[in-house]
Amino acid sequence: MKFTAQQIAGILDGDIEGNPDIEVYKLSKIEEGSEGSVTFLANPKYNSFLYSTKASIAIVNKEFKPDSKINTTLIKVDDAYLAFSKLLEYYNLVKLNKFGIEEPSFISKTATYGEGVYIGAFTYLAENVKIGRNVKIFPNAYIGDNVIIGDNTIIFSGAKIYSETIIGSDCVINSGVIIGADGFGFAPSENGEYKKIPQIGNVIIEDYVDIGAATTIDRATMGSTIIRSGVKLDNHIQIAHNVEIGKNTVIASQTGVAGSAKVGENCMIGGQVGIVGHVTIGNNVKIQAQSGIARNVKDNETLQGSPAIALNDFNKSYVHFKNLPKIINDINDLEKKINGNS
């Protein structure tokens, strides 16, 4: 899809210097710009690339004044970085702006869907599924019995949504996500074998939640596993049964949250963090990457380490960690001197 400089300037409320009719059909970094692309310049460090880029259009700040001739058409805006971000959002919206029902796909006679939906080929909608308005479900997705999906949600190819799951509005579920699989529940028997405990709960995803590729969220044993509004989950995260993640919390890749843990609002959790089951983490908590959480955490704490301790304590301790061999040698030398003098 092509856009002219005039159209882009209208979207961004910008001023054009150059050819208003020049067309672009792709986005690029300024140092990799090519004919037919639009780029941006926000960091003065990259000013030199503006004079050599082959991009057809460049978005720049209004105060920018070139030192020499520029062949690229400029669109001047108040904030080039924010303007380009807005353009990225618009581009993504256009790219995903699909409608209709592709064949072959299976839609149960008891399933319902709202206006403006897109249901891609080889998608399966089971019994009593309820799909809101403007929902996009890309090919090869599975939507199980009694699932409810709110307006404007996007479900990418290969996602699997198990029965009874409830997903709110304006969510993004990326490829390979599995929501509602059985929680890890087994009880040991007298003969040493493990007996599976039925997992009869569900998963509730509230509004404005983003879930990264290959992340898994298990259904509750009873009740619900709950992801509150505004949560952002990275790729390859495991959320176990009966976990609750508070509003606007963000969690980075490869983190695992064990069963029945409760995470508060506005938390920031780094990659490869492990959180044991049945603990409560307060609001506004920050947990550094590769930390292990084995206790309850109060509001506003910042932790690092495994087991995790306060970040300031960890940094002070690390000075001694790296000097342990020398400290041990010094202690051994002191012991020898003491023993030699006794």
Automatic annotation (TrEMBL):
* GO BP terms in the entry: lipid A biosynthetic process
- A GO term, aspect molecular function: N-acyltransferase activity
Q: In which pathway does it act?
A: Bacterial outer membrane biogenesis; LPS lipid A biosynthesis
Query: Which residues act catalytically here?
Result: 241 (proton acceptor)
| Record-linked Pfam families | Hexapep, LpxD
UniProt keyword terms in alphabetical order: Acyltransferase, Lipid A biosynthesis, Lipid biosynthesis, Lipid metabolism, Repeat, Transferase
Task: Report the top EC class in one word.
Answer: transferase
Instruction: Note the subunit structure.
Output: Homotrimer.
What this chain does, per the record? Catalyzes the N-acylation of UDP-3-O-acylglucosamine using 3-hydroxyacyl-ACP as the acyl donor. Is involved in the biosynthesis of lipid A, a phosphorylated glycolipid that anchors the lipopolysaccharide to the outer membrane of the cell.
HAMAP family in alphabetical order? LpxD (MF_00523)
Record's protein name: UDP-3-O-acylglucosamine N-acyltransferase
- Mind giving the lineage of the organism this protein is from? Bacteria, Pseudomonadati, Bacteroidota, Flavobacteriia, Flavobacteriales
